[in-house]
C-alpha cells in the first residue's frame, strides 16, 4: 500500500464562535487560511512529484477549504468525499456547544460505549468507525499505486490512524489518536509490510505564525 499523509483541517469558525463541530458546516477563519498556506508550503517541500499523489477531503467547508488552499499550492485537484466527515451529531448539527452539552445523551459509564448514540439522528462510535474504514478501503482501492493526501477532521483522522493500525472496533474503546488543528500525520509501510506511523500531528510549520 502507498503512503498516506493525513491533515487535520485548520482553524474554523466553530473553534471561536461557540458552535458545535460534527456536521455543523463552518468555514475557515482568517487564521485558518494562513495556517493552510503554511501547510501548503510544508507539503511542497515534502512532495517531490505531485503526480504520485491523489488529494482527498471531507466535503465540509473547513476541510474542503483547507484542501483547496493546499491543492492550489501543490497543483492537485481536490476530491471531496462525504465519508471523510467528522462524526454525525444528528440534531446537534448547527447548534451551539452549550446546546450540545445540555442535550447530549450521557453514557452510562466512563468508558466509551461503541454503540452509544449521543444525539438523536446521529452516529454511534461503531457506525462512525465503520464508515471511516469503508471510506478508506474504497479510496485505497480506487487510487491503487498512488500516495494519498487526505484532509479531514480530528475524530476522523484518529479513526483513519486506527484503521491503518488494523484496530478491531473494540480496540478503540481503550485507545485513541488525538491530533490538532493543522497537524500533519504520515503513515507508510516498511520492508516487512508492517503499517507504520512515521510522524503524528507535526505542527512545527505553524510556529511561523507565533
UniProtKB/TrEMBL annotation:
It comes from the Bacteria. SMART domains: PGAM. The active site is at 9 (tele-phosphohistidine intermediate), 86 (proton donor/acceptor). Pfam families: His_Phos_1 (PF00300). One of its GO terms (molecular function) is phosphatase activity. Substrate binds at residues 62, 97. This is Phosphoglycerate kinase. InterPro entries: His_Pase_superF_clade-1, His_PPase_superfam, PGM_Phosphatase. GO terms for cellular component: cytoplasm.
